[in-house]
Specification:
By secondary structure, the chain is of the alpha+beta class. It contains 7 helices and 9 strands, in the order H-E-E-E-H-E-E-H-H-E-H-E-E-E-H-H. The protein is rod-shaped and about 150 Å long.
Amino acid sequence: IENIEEYYGSVFPPEFAPKETSKIINENLKRATIGETNTIEYHFNVDDNVVWYQTTITPFFNNENNLMYIRADSMNITESKITEVKLTESEEMFKSTLYDFLNGVIVHDIDSSIILSNPAAHSILGLNGDQLLGKKNIDPKWNFVNVNESVMKIKDYPVSIVLSSGEKCLNYVMGVKKPNIKEITWVNVNAVPKYKNNKMNGVIVNFEDITEIKKAEDEKKKAYEHSAEQDKLALVGKIAGKMAHDFNNVLAVIGGNAELTLMDLEEPPKTSRPINPKETLELICEQVLRGTDL
């Protein structure tokens, strides 16, 4: 309105106001006549553009409580409305993308409560949206677990780590133990703080199911350990075989010298050099000591 004076004495809202806008204004003017103060938002179409206004309608009464006049304080809020619409569209796009995302995503408020989750998160965790939002109870047998399969403490949850430290928590492997399901679902988690006006106001957690990958890694580890055990047994067998060979040599010396000593004791020696029993027994003792060192 370029010249407001042109509208002095005219009916408000003006004739060019959209029907719905006129209805809203008239309803709130009527409420003002009984003493209510109201703030409303409405729009006009000006030169093919939508112009938004915010108006506060305030009644004024005299000492006898008779209505004297009604004041309407208006301000153009078109820019903020445009920003609000863009923000809403952006949020809707974010939600749409989030819901189509294959990884699980959960958005936490600053108090760690869940404010948003996607279908992939529900599937991986085995919980529905209402359970995650706290609207329905979760079976007490449902738990997060550590890599050693012990029940994880709340302080060790990725969201708790981020909220307490203000730092990202990346590549955090943890398990999900679901009631009546023997197999644990393993996930790789990344949790990051989200900010508004340079102040942390929540945490975004995304995670992927790595159960099959972990199974393959565990099988590979078992195969390696089995191979190492087989190599160890083969080495022990090799050492045992060598020890047995050396021990047989010791026994051969002991047995041979013992037989010679017995023969010498039973018959006089026929050799040019008589066998000395003392030397023979000393040799036997020497070989016995050698055998104990094997």
